[in-house]
Write a structure and sequence with these properties.
Layout: H1 3-8, H2 27-44, E1 57-58, H3 69-76, E2 81-84, E3 90-93, E4 105-108, E5 120-121, E6 126-128, E7 135-136, E8 142-144, E9 153-159, E10 163-168
Antiparallel strand pairs: 1-10, 2-3, 3-4, 4-9, 5-6, 6-7, 7-8, 9-10
Amino acid sequence: LQPSALQSAPVRSLGAWPARSAELPEPRRRACLAALCVCAALLLGAPRRVEAKARAVVALDEGFVQITSASWVQTSGGLPGLVQGLRGEPFFLLPGKDGGALRNYALKAECTHLGCIAPWDQSTKRFVCPCHGSQYDEEGRVLRGPAPTALALAHVSLIAGDKVQLSAWTETDFRDDSAPWWK
């Protein structure tokens, strides 16, 4: 192109272009497209969120070393301890009641309000979220909001070599006899 050819071309603003009837769909065409979309949705179904059940994993410590019951009892000092659990997410292992090594469940460490880690506060004997002040009892029930629900649960079991394994909790929540919201 020659520079003179560029200068001679008419310049119009976007608002100055005339609307052409061929560019706009006809009402019948719009109705057909809408009907086609409805039929496709009915035939194919609405998209569903598919989330696989979390695979059972051996709990890992801060150094990504597999945790055994004996090692956890020695390092925990009888307090809830943070571990890497299901889907690589943080969970608290809990000391057993009445002298047991571990409870048969763990609590997800994320506050149900906005997902901050809610560490154990030994002075109040509660999990306390540092972000907005939510508090949970030793079983993960909400004592003070703004958290809307209790902490999520996971099963704890011992497998070969005394390793601590976490697996998905899909049964009724023993704390309030409700279906687990965290599925």
